[in-house]
Predict the structure.
Amino acid sequence: MAAVETEKRIVRAQAKYVHSSARKARLVTDLIRGRSVPEARTILAFSDRAIARDIERVLHSAVSNAESRPDLLWNGDDLLVETAYADEGPTLKRHRARARGRVGRIMKRTCHITVELAPSPAAIAAAAAAAAAPKRAPRAAKKSTTETTEPAETPTEETESES
């Protein structure tokens, strides 16, 4: 049996060096993974976590990337959050003076948030059905073109019959 590979089109957006730990960001990205874009926006809007605002900005950027690409022609509301993850970024190491001449270490963690969008299966099926359907011109457009061409044709017919 031969394996058939289909090219899966995805659009992604990434925010780097976000000032939050990857562990905190993963809690929120797990909530939106596999959801539709409107549903993910609702979840992020009502989340109490501070990182949800940064993830919402990345989601908005990914939707804008999908809508602005002329070769895709995707609608933002028809997309799914294919993957959403948070990787660790560099950690800034700071120190604070403690008792008896010692130093307490402060770890300022950062993360890289990535969101990838793909069209939903329902949107793919609708696009395939629209492409397979025969194209018809609207009737209103046909009437308006015939009305404008009829007066132009009648004088030419009369001039031909006179000669």
Remarks:
- The chain has five helices and five strands.
- The longest strand covers residues 79-88.
